[in-house]
Amino acid sequence: MRTTEPTVHLPQHPLRARWAAWAVAAWIPCTAAMAQCGTTVYDTGGAGGNYGNNQNLTWTYCAPPGQLLTLTFTAFNTEAFWDELSVHNGPTNGSPQLGIFSGTALPPSFTSTVGGCLTLWFTSDNSVTQPGWAINITCAVPPPPPANNNCSGATVLPVLTTCTMLPFTNVSATASGTNPPPTCSTPPNTDVWFTFTTGASGQVFIDTQAGSMADAAMQLYSGTCAALALVACNDDEDLLGGLLMPEIDRRCATLNPFTTYYIRLWGYGGATGTFSICVSAPSAPSAQQEDCTGAYTICSDQQINNNTNFSGCVADLNATNRGCLMGNERQGTWYFFSPSASGTAALTIQPSANIDYDFAIWGPMATITCPPVGNPTRCSWAYPPNVPGYPGAAAFRTGLGNGAVDNSENEFGNGWVAPLNIITGQMYIMYIDNFDITGQAFTLDWTLTNGASLDCTVLPVELMGLQATAQPGAVMLSWTTQTEDGTAHFTVERSADAETFVPIGQVPAAGHSLAHLDYSFIDNAPLPGTNYYRLRVVHLDGTVQTSPTASAIHDGTGAVLRVVPNPANDHLTVLLPGAPATTVHYRLATAQGRVLRHGTATLGPDDDRIRLQVADLPEGLYLLHVEDANGQPLGSARVALSRPQAGNR
């Protein structure tokens, strides 16, 4: 342990840089006493008093050789925004900053590198003092490096439809030295590794969350551990907002489908601690609700709850159509609605917290056009601090009604514009955005009067992702609906030339649904060669929609691909009799589409099989798909994995 004389540096954080400049001019550094492992340390006011004004102090705590030192905050209270404590990974306040804190929120714990130091830097202004902090200091022998310390031991992350944070640590992680090095942040001296496989869309969103480590970075790679290629790197999700954990968003600039990628994550400036990470992707390739083409259809006088952390892939708003929304699109979502009966529509948008939401409505129109054309019919860009009652919750509400008579308002409005007289059969587009870009939710409530009601005439069914997959002697069709209203059935049609289609079957529809629904149909008598398929979506009112076309190749023998044994135990063999001598690509996926095995194999005149080890996979039903080098399907099969019970053979 040692005592240090504090010196003023200008570290990376913009807030700290501002106060450090003041410190150079006005504050006199003081010497701070040190404490030993296993003790509790306080600010200059001690256990029961307040710190002083005009302070500029550093305290440095160093671990014994071969050990880790951890600082755990048990109390924290400083004058918010004015008196700040920063934590640095090293022996001075010029060392990499791990976090900066002010107010009453308890900071996370911080752990040094092996034998390393942590430094606290505190500055206070010339008025108002608070009780400060209490910190427990502990020292311990470091645990062994985590299992994913190197690329070869990368932890497999599931790709789910929503972000499900999974906890990990990089405590005791060592520099893997893997090339190429990352393209952002500080050197990856405490890196750990993850891997995942993309789905059919190639879309992914990789997000992280602070634990005891509050500042990290990550690099995304393609390839293999022996030959990695740089894809993307991120250090801070939102530096100005103080969010120092990384994210990588590839929902627009998509990755390659059914491909394995690697994530290298490390602490900024060598920081270590706990953190969480998730990889998410939509269940099927689709337009985002953050873009006009992915708008959600409002089907009735229903309450809407939504939030987003995304601004979409398409810039739908510009100077020609944004109206009062001078910020264009800021983390917003799109909606369609159409009246089944004319009348008056009012609505209230209530944020879940004191967040600045704005909105605009375009219409009436005979058909939906994305992006909307011309300025909106109703628009509010009110700024809550300008609204009477601020900072109360009422100042953050916005909508149609509440006595308003204006059709549009700028930042000096009160959040309310006039109700809308809606017309039967006409269509409207609505955009609701989160100006503060916080990702926090809102609730929308309708007030429909004078006979008004809403229906789903804009998009009676949102049909997503028709797929055709060749199987032994058959072709399996699968598709998904996001919403349905008044859907009677799906007629499956087939063609040999993609021009003349004939019906080959019918699948009943749900009728009315706001949930994600999966459908399938098996063509047990496909034509030799390429089969083209489409759906005719028939509604209860007699109207019909036609889906895009999907295709699959069938060789006419019914014996292109076979799996033995099936069910399988610890291994399986894929037989491809009659297949040409070529390189083939295979993938084995779960019923939910997650690829667990994939690779290439070379077939020869005397070897028409692929051998796969599956002993590490859980029991269940899987889908095997094989393509030639040009991406043309050679066949698919359902594979069951079943393990003998104890005592059975």
What does this entry look like structurally?
The protein is mainly β and 649 residues long. It folds into five domains: 14-140, Jelly Rolls; 151-280, Jelly Rolls (Sandwich); 292-455, Jelly Rolls (Sandwich); 461-554, Immunoglobulin-like, CATH 2.60.40; 562-641, Sandwich (Immunoglobulin-like). The chain contains one helix and 47 strands. Strands 19, 21, 23, 24, 26, 29 and 31 form a seven-stranded mixed beta sheet that branches. Strands 20, 22, 25, 27, 28 and 30 form a six-stranded mixed beta sheet that branches. The N and C termini lie far apart (64 Å).
User: DSSP strand (E) fraction?
Assistant: 35-45%
According to CATH, what is the class of the largest domain?
A: Mainly Beta
Radius of gyration, in angstroms, nearest whole number: 30 Å
The DSSP helix count reads 1
**Sheet with most strands:** 7 strands, mixed
Descriptors:
649 residues, Jelly Rolls, seven-stranded mixed sheet, six-stranded mixed sheet, 44% strand, disordered N terminus
Topology:
Blueprint: H1 14-26, E1 40-42, E2 56-62, E3 68-77, E4 84-88, E5 97-101, E6 110-111, E7 117-123, E8 132-140, E9 155-156, E10 159-160, E11 166-169, E12 192-197, E13 204-210, E14 216-224, E15 227-234, E16 247-250, E17 260-267, E18 274-280, E19 296-297, E20 304-306, E21 332-341, E22 343-351, E23 357-365, E24 378-380, E25 398-400, E26 408-409, E27 416-417, E28 420-422, E29 427-434, E30 442-449, E31 453-455, E32 461-471, E33 474-485, E34 487-495, E35 502-508, E36 512-513, E37 517-523, E38 529-539, E39 544-546, E40 550-554, E41 562-564, E42 571-575, E43 583-590, E44 595-602, E45 609-613, E46 620-628, E47 633-641
